[in-house]
Amino acid sequence: MPIRIPKLLPAKEVLENENIFVMDNERAGTQDIRPLNILILNLMPEKQREEAQLLRLLGNTALQVNVSFLRTATHQAKHTSQLHLDQFYTVFDKIREKKFDGLIITGAPVEKYPFESVDYWDELKRIMEWSKTNVTSTLNICWGAQAALYYHFGIDKVLLPKKLSGIYRHTVQNPREKILRGFDDQFAAPHSRYTDVDREELAQHPEVRILAASEEAGPFILYANKGNQIMVTGHFEYDTETLALEYQRDLKKGIAPELPEHYFPTDDPLRSPVNTWRSHAHLFFSNWLNYYVYQETPYLWE
């Protein structure tokens, strides 16, 4: 089944060229199917890149998915045109009375700042509180995962000695949980962040379970409230070249970044990286949509 997106969204052409099944609103409106309504709060600066990455994963299931994009009203995007935002995004005040089957809160490049100093933190808190009653399951990614742990459970983040960037090996710790159905015992996934979860605080919250973790990168997939909150501290959605682009970007900024770990063959940035996480990324998003959204959401929200 297809993912349903606006007809003129630039990501539509990208996905069609990759043989991803997408359907515009005009065609989808002729089908008598109750699609899943997924809201994406896109906090990433390069929003069009993040759109394509997430839609690619949401579109590879047997479910019809109707996607809406949400932006913050209290922060002005600098890397995405206002025309694109006006055409494809909405703000919270316009959807706060609606119900959604799933919500995705992306990462954001603000992890070095205290949560309270982020200019849209109050707005994000309202959205996270609203999600408790208006969303079946919320998937929180990277900084979004840290924000969810902090807001819902009081678990703070800690600054790492250096940026954690690379492809890391993870071990499944709870293979019976549905989000991990079909996973290998070990799997790879990208990380790109300067902060980590405070593990001492995490240990004080048994209601938050670690489902998969890495010896190098720490807790990766976390779960709470029967799947109403799922946190992923890395970036399953990243394309093959995303870490390379971030590395080149930081070089141009004069940051002198270290090479992403376990990423470039023989640690040679002139060699093309190999994607080792794509299949598990698709499986993860498919499991989330099926077991925590489709199987749990009411046919008609009251």
Automatic annotation (TrEMBL):
Pathway connected to this protein: Amino-acid biosynthesis; L-methionine biosynthesis via de novo pathway; O-acetyl-L-homoserine from L-homoserine: step 1/1
UniProt keyword list: Acyltransferase, Amino-acid biosynthesis, Cytoplasm, Methionine biosynthesis, Transferase
First-level EC class: transferase
Signal peptide per UniProt: none
Positions of the record's site feature: Important for acyl-CoA specificity: E111
Catalysed reactions, as listed in the record: L-homoserine + acetyl-CoA = O-acetyl-L-homoserine + CoA
Location of the active site: C142 (acyl-thioester intermediate), H235 (proton acceptor), E237
E.C. no: 2.3.1.31
Entries under NCBIfam families matching the protein: metA (TIGR01001)
Task performed by this protein: Transfers an acetyl group from acetyl-CoA to L-homoserine, forming acetyl-L-homoserine.
HAMAP family: MetA_acyltransf
Family recorded in the similarity comment: Belongs to the MetA family.
UniProt-listed PANTHER family: HOMOSERINE O-SUCCINYLTRANSFERASE
Name recorded for this polypeptide: Homoserine O-acetyltransferase
Taxonomic lineage of the native organism: Bacteria, Bacillati, Bacillota, Bacilli, Bacillales
